[in-house]
Amino acid sequence: MNWRIVPYNLRMMARHALKRSALFHRCMAELAAFRELAPEARRARQCALLEDVLASAARTRHYAPLLQALQRFDNPIERLKALPYLEKEVVRVAPDAFVAPARFSITAHTSGTTGTPLRLRRDLYCVAREEAGFFQWHQAAGWTAVDEMAVLRGDIVVDIARQRPPFGLRDVFFNRRVLSSYHLSERTLPWYLATLRAAPTRFLAAYPSSAWLLAEYVQRTQAAPLGMGAVFLASETVTPAACALINAQLGPVQAQYGNAERVCWMTTCAAGCYHEDTQYGFTEYLPLGDDRYEIVATGFVNHVMPLLRYRTGDIAVAPFGWETRCACGQPGPGCAQILGRADDFIVTPDGRRIGRLDHVFKEAQHVIAAQILQTTPTQIELRVIRAPQYATRDEAALRAELLTRLGATVAVTFCYVDELPRTAQGKFRAVVSACAHAQHGGT
Ligand SMILES: [Zn+2]
Asked: What's the 342 CA to ligand 1 centre distance in angstroms?
């Protein structure tokens, strides 16, 4: 018996009430109506939505003086483009300056692709809009609400010390089979695959690193491909090689790009390219050379904390505009590929391979940036750039968060630094392992 079933489902009951509110149904209707519009009408609608978010931004401490000075621009795109780019550090230092007064909101945290934790606020519309976006994305790939969704996305659903199946539980409110991303090993992978093969699970929502581990195992053991209806990947980079492997062994890949700051939403098409949701935000591509661009985006969905021209730190390859038709037949805007996270797996002494670990930093308010480094099979070093308020209790909290996911078989040490290393391409890696052999392919 997994004692977590009851508290987990109680949490999901509350989350269901929040996410599937009347606002959710309004968002679903708006999304459906937007999809029916001709490209020109979508552009006009995007301008109107941008105008609305600029009006909300003008009520915040950060943007009020900036936008006051730009009233001569009638066109909202021109007004937007007269603003400076917004750096993540500016938001980290003074998040309240971006919050519109007198609006109900909930707090959220992220560490994102740069290892820098942020404290964010979202309104109820934003929460419902995100849920509607995922719901609609899943529907477009053939999923319906009566189909159970298998999930491998870093949820803590069983104790880390658990040795025997099940390594997951059922979420009755969202009709999901939620599996642990922290128990994947050679010994347990057969159980995961058997669970996924069992009816009625035909759809999987996973971190690319977790899906890659399953797909690689199926290929290596020459087991029959899973033949799922769709595999929904989000939150990490999906390399072309990983996409091909998961496509062949698990089922057709659908990838989504988004961020906790809620500024940009893109999903892949039949041709494997990313298409922007232009009802969600306005995206710009800042040239970096070599046909690579930083994604700089303005979200329309969160009026309590509007972020304009926000530098995401994520890199898009070969973007294309409205006037270009993608190989799938649909017009842009979008891009050929997104290079976001490229983390290593941590391999624990008992053989579990753990992909994404940035949850560890989500609540860490006094951390400017951090990186997890595995130096030996039993040694984890946390490299942390501290904010002035950082105290002993922050270290204890980080250690506890890490051990909850890795188990007590590893030792954690802390290293306080002024700078974190980047790859030769200038990319930041949140998790680096000096002893992992098989990696799911960064860039
Ligand atoms: Zn396309």
From this structure: 24
Rounded to 5°, the CA angle 87-88-91 comes to: 100
The pLDDT score that the predictor gives to residue 33 is: 97
Q: How far is the CA of 260 from the centre of ligand 1 (A)?
A: 24
Cα 336 to averaged position of ligand 1 atoms, centre (Å):
9
pLDDT at 340: 67
Residue keyed to tokens 């209806």: 229
State in Å: Cα 205 to ligand 1 middle. 21
Q: How would you label 334-372 residue by residue, b for 16+ Cβ within 10 Å and e otherwise?
A: bbbbbbbbbbbbbbbeeebbbbbbbbbbbebbbbbbbbb
Whether residue 200 has a cis bond before it, omega within 30° of 0:
yes
Residue 214: count other Cβ atoms within 10 Å of its Cβ. 24
Question: How much distance in Å is there from the Cα of 30 to the middle of ligand 1?
Answer: 22
End-to-end alpha-carbon separation of the chain, Å?
41
Residue 441 pLDDT greater than 60, yes or no? no
Q: What is the rounded average pLDDT of the residues 338-364?
A: 81
Please give the CATH architecture assigned to the domain spanning 142-251. Answer: 3-Layer(aba) Sandwich (3.40)
> Hey, is 32 helix, strand or coil?
helix
Dist. CA 325 → ligand 1 center (Å): 8
**Topology of domain 346-433, CATH:** GMP Synthetase; Chain A, domain 3 (3.30.300)
How far apart are the C-alpha atoms of 206 and 227, rounded to whole Å?
15
Query: From start to end of 248-291, where are the E strands?
Result: 253-258, 265-268, 274-276, 281-289
pTM score above 0.85: yes
- Biggest alpha carbon distance in the chain? 66
Contact 84, 296 (CB under 8 A): no
Report how far residue 208's alpha carbon sits from residue 246's, in angstroms, rounded to the nearest whole number: 9
pLDDT value at residue 442: 39
**Unique residue bearing structure tokens 């893109």:** 266
Q: Which residues contact 75 (CB under 8 A, 6 or more apart)?
A: 47
- The answer to whether the beta carbons of residues 216 and 161 sit under 8 Å apart is no
Average pLDDT estimate for 284-294: 90
Q: Tell me the per-residue pLDDT of 367-407, one tens digit each, with 9 for 90 and over.
A: 888 889 999 989 999 999 888 899 999 999 999 999 988 88
- Is there a contact between 117 and 367 (Cβ–Cβ < 8 Å)? yes
Pairing of strands 149-152, 176-179: parallel
- The token duo for 352 is 């579990």
Domain boundaries, the chain: 5-130+259-339, 142-251, 346-433
Q: In this structure, how many other beta carbons lie within 10 angstroms of the beta carbon of residue 270?
A: 12
Q: Is 399 exposed, middle or buried (0-12, 13-18, 19+ CB in 10 A)?
A: middle
